[in-house]
Amino acid sequence: MQQASSLRLTPLEGKLMAWAQMREVRCAVSERVQTELRLTPRVSRELLDKMNKRGLIIQLQRGLYLFPDKLPTGGTWQPSAELAICYYLSFKKAAWQETGPAIFQYHRLSEQIANVSHVYNDQVSGAKTFGKLKVQFIKVPPNRIGHFEEIDLRYDRFAFRRVGTLPRVVFDAIYDYSRFGSTTRVYEWIEQRISDTKFIKELVECAVDHGNVASCRRIGWAIESLGAKKSLWKPLNGILKPTRSFIPVDPTKPSRGKINRLWGVLENE
């Protein structure tokens, strides 16, 4: 095993890193490290804790660690958010997909650089930090997972990321507007793609498969008002019941404007 000139490892640290590299172990629980290296529970715990604090490995959760495929130059290692997400949620056997501002940028909907990754999943809720990267896990029912693309990570043959498709993340921007602060921009995104039948069709499918009444009303209103064919928005209108309660198109603005009875909305955009 080659060591970077600026990195000094203790014999045990070197043994652990060599084992991980030779066996191509990228993620392991502490019990496996203890068994493979023939360590006592205390020595194993202290070794992993020390290496995590030094930035040589990353603790994904208590007793679960991510290892680099080679020694980090300069002495510290920071895996990408998508690598940590994949191993962490795969260990939990979770269904998941990335969404939010980072994926808006991925799909070139926004140029804003996101400093937090957002992940819909069916197992974990709350914020976690992997090294220096923040990830917000949003626990949702299994029926909220879907319409994503799976992408292999070129730098790790065992890992992949799951990214919501373009129509799916546009849907998410409407459904989760309060979390992502995306209401105003999302109607512009739809308007720019209103002639893209494939996009509009999948957007409607996302609303039917994963939406609530409010998101279905807003998406239906948007594509119908922008001139999409009736055959595209009819599936949405068909699942909505008549209502006397009107919701604002833009929930971040005052609830006043023209009433649209077809969709049960106030046109306050």
Stretches where pLDDT is under 50 for at least 5 consecutive residues are 1-5
Shape: elongated
Sheet with the most strands: spatial strand order: 4-5-7-6
Strand/helix succession = HEHHEEHEHEEEEEHHHHHHEEE
Could you tell me the radius of gyration in angstroms? 23 Å
Question: What is the arithmetic mean of pLDDT?
Answer: 93
Total domains, how many? Answer: 3
User: How large a portion of the residues is in β-strands, by DSSP E?
Assistant: 15-25%
The description of the largest β-sheet is: 4 strands, mixed
Helix content: 40-55%
What is the count of β-strands? 12
Beginning-to-end CA distance, first to last residue: 61 Å
Structural summary, described in words:
With 269 residues, the protein is of the alpha+beta class. It has three domains: 11-75, Arc Repressor Mutant, subunit A; 80-164, no CATH class; 168-269. It has eleven helices and twelve strands. Strands 4-5-7-6 form a four-stranded mixed beta sheet. A three-stranded antiparallel beta sheet has the order 1-3-2, sandwiched between helices. Helix 2 crosses helix 3 (41-54), helix 9 (197-210) runs antiparallel to helix 10 (213-225) and helix 10 (213-225) runs antiparallel to helix 11.
SSE topology:
Elements: H1 11-22, E1 27-29, H2 30-36, H3 41-54, E2 58-61, E3 64-66, H4 81-91, E4 96-99, H5 101-106, E5 116-121, E6 126-130, E7 133-139, E8 148-152, E9 160-164, H6 166-175, H7 177-180, H8 183-192, H9 197-210, H10 213-225, H11 230-239, E10 247-248, E11 258-260, E12 265-267
Parallel strand pairs: 5-7, 10-12
Antiparallel strand pairs: 1-3, 2-3, 4-5, 6-7, 8-9, 11-12
